[in-house]
Known about the structure:
Largest interface: A-B, 41 and 40 residues
Largest sheet of chain B: none
Oligomer: heterodimer
Distance between the termini of chain A: 38 Å
CATH class of chain B: Mainly Alpha
CATH class of chain A: Mainly Alpha
CATH superfamily of chain B: Cytochrome c oxidase, subunit III, four-helix bundle
Distance between the termini of chain B: 67 Å
Structural class of chain A: mainly alpha
CATH topology of chain B: Four Helix Bundle (Hemerythrin (Met), subunit A)
CATH superfamily of chain A: Cytochrome c oxidase-like, subunit I domain
Helix content of chain B: over 70%
Radius of gyration of chain B: 24 Å
CATH architecture of chain B: Up-down Bundle
Helix content of chain A: 55-70%
Shape of chain B: elongated
Number of helices of chain A: 17
Strand content of chain A: under 5%
CATH architecture of chain A: Up-down Bundle
Radius of gyration of chain A: 23 Å
Order of helices and strands of chain B: HHHHHHHHH
Number of domains of chain B: 1
Structural class of chain B: mainly alpha
Largest sheet of chain A: none
Amino acid sequence: MSATSSTIVNLPDQRTATLPKRSYLNNEDGLLSWLLTGDHKRIAILYLISITFFFFIGGAFAGLIRLELLTPQPDLVASDTYNKFFSMHGIIMVFLFLVPSVPATLGNFLMPIMIGAKDLAFPKVNLLSWYLYWIGGLFTLAALVLGGVDTGWTFTTPLSTHYLNTHVITAALGIFIIGFSSIFTGLNFIVTIHRMRAPGMTWFRLPLFVWSNYAASLLMVLGTPVLAITLVLVALERTIGIGVFDPTKGGDPLLFQHLFWFYSHPAVYIMILPGMGVISEVISTFSRKRVFGYTAVAFSSVAIALFGFFVWAHHMFIMGVSNYSALVFSLLTMLVAVPSAIKIFNWAFTLQKGSITFETPMLYAFGFMGLFTIGGMTGVFLGALGMDIHLTETYFIVAHFHFVMVGGMLMAFLSGVHFWWPKMTGRMYPESLSKLAAVTTFIGFNLTFLPQFILGYLGMPRRYHAYPPEFQVLNVLSTAGATVLGVGYMLPLLYLGWSLKYGAIAGNNPWQATGLEWQIQSPPLTENFIEVPVIDYEAYDYEWLAQKMEQEVTTVG
Amino acid sequence: MIAATHAHTHETAQPVEHEHVALPQLRHHFETEEQQREAATFGMWLFLLTEIMFFGGLFFSYLLYRNWYYDAFVVASNQLSVPLGGINTAVLITSGFFMALGVWAAEVKKKGLLVLFLILTILFGCVFIGIKADEYHEKWEKHHIPGDHFDVAEFVNPHAYGLNEKPLPPDAANRTQIFFSLYFLMTGLHALHMLIGLGILFWLLWRAHRGDFSAGYVAPIENFALYWHFVDIVWLFLFPLLYLINRHPGA
């Protein structure tokens, strides 16, 4: 591997370089100027800090789960405490980290810049969404501090409505509120992309990051309200006993699952689509080529969003849905693999004959491509009816969705954070340490979750805190992997913090990338652009960039 | 106004077209007023789309249970007062009509008329809520509110209560509770939207009285009207689905 032999990083002369005098970071001072800001970039930073906070809480629960599973005996915690561990891990990671991860941070920061706008269409709604996120987050933390909740992240009835006396309503209320935060983000994005594009920025000149966030926003706007009303029904069933989900009164618990998965399956695509957008940008930049099959990749995002609404019952194959509907949902589920594969193949063709360099974002992106492919393929296993009956509710399914969510989305998130870190802060992260972190994460991840595929195939059920002794070797491997993974996630926290003060000055365009966001100063001005940009070139046009840089040199000379 | 325009011209030292004076409400991140207005309207339509999905979960539940427990739904639906529901439908449409007139008044910059129409919109909205509250109160007295105190006596033994209905076996009678749950959820969520709307209407009334919408800035009135009409339309679905299940001629 010739990772060190070539690089496209192009930093200004560090002896003379300085950060810009005026930027969104120092435009106004004081805590209040942040808490009352309408600037999409500042709100993105607020979100970034918030989701990092919740990520490490959710991660701590993952650590506790793996610690308990180190031995076959239930020796660390009691079984109901263990239930609370995995419930809190799921709730926090899904609703407070994965759903807002890329859209609310990187999307918020970059999307208006990428389309040449000064801000999102509704800055106050954007700020409101952050406050709703925190109110919902505080409810979730309250449920945690008051004694936890042990329904699992799915709130399945009648368990959640009749059999548990933990803080179901507090947690459900929290998620209800966070739902509105996500609706407002999606709504803001869609309106902005439709109405705020700069002159010449046609739909097919948009960076693919914008396309994928657009598709995810559609899902947020259409899916989340259904989750909201479902949680209201759960809360009312629990308090008053309205009977809608109660079989003794004629209600149908399966109705809950239909409504819940009608949101929560599309939610999986809310969690992965923006990450795919990041990968498109990164792969193009570090292979110096336009994304192969731009239109196909753009439309595949929309196709994933569309198909995503018609596959929800594959979560319910063993719950007593009819054979015929199971058959239809199985077929539709396999259909989702098509647009996902279109993306993977197009990225692979983008790499082909590209001038590939191996900077940190690219390493994470490679991690994404491999791990997401495994996660996606095992999803097809689970979509097949016969296989699903054997594999569902086992560790196979745990491994499958962690490959997609952690191996996919978290890799993409870290890739994006590294890629745009110089734009957000004006400073570079330390290159070799971050490469170490990327490799550590990849190794740790595989060590954690590959054994779980085998465990699940052998029949170890999920959500139990004890297991037969013959499964111990694989579980020890998994726990060891989780430790490595933890180190892999701690590293960026430390060195990114360090780089805020000591990182090299990045300059406007350290990667020599084509995106509009790289043509302005880093960190950007509050109003992003000094004058409204006029777009007369396609996305990922490296020839245009080369010409532009040549002209700049001659002008200076 | 002329003085203000003049000062503005002086400050920026740029020629300002005499025809066009930027509204003070133009936010800095929009290029033109038209863009701002279009964005706001588009945002409102999207919000209404989320509202459709929000109600959609309840409509789906209704569809399911009405098919399963048709007999119970018929009997329970007969408990609702069609005259009151019908009057309320008329009241709500009238309220929506005045709202539409309000948009017109704002567009032609007639402040007095706008204030009047907003007051009428509020008035009819309140009448709707009042009638709805009366209907709820009746259900409360008859123990038809789902939960621990729900009473099926009237459905098991309707003749004892002077009702001309077919008696239901106890388990089927219990299904009426599902109907009333959905009735209260759907009309309750609708009434909640009305109450929030009335709150916003009072705020708009105050702003209209202050003269905010007298100079061509009508986006808040326009977008609120979209919301208010949406709430009307929801009711136009709720009324037949809940009140008129078995009221066709000859039934």
